[in-house]
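# nightly structure sweep
# worker-07 picked up a monomer target from the shared queue
# config: single-sequence mode, recycle default, output format = structure tokens
# input follows
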Amino acid sequence: VGSFTDWAAFEKDFQAEFFPIDPAKSAALALHNREQYGQEKRMLDEYIDSLWALVKQAAYPDGLQLCLTLQDGLHSTLMQHIDNLAEGHLDNEQIASWYKVAWDQ
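# output follows
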């Protein structure tokens, strides 16, 4: 733990650590880092909630890029299962169709 010379020094370090200058940019960068947003061992609802929070903060539009981001973060077993069941039946421009299929599994 570092020491601070005064309250202003502490506040400056605190702001830099916990309140990024550009939250939309930080969220967009997190969405491109599977280790930060991927499902891993989390429940699907937890993964989708955290993904959705980042998507809203980054102001991602619905569409192909968002669908690919969701797919990339899903647990590989779930993604493989979805691929087998829904090949050619999902709209890669509408994230809602992907959410529904993932939850139904």
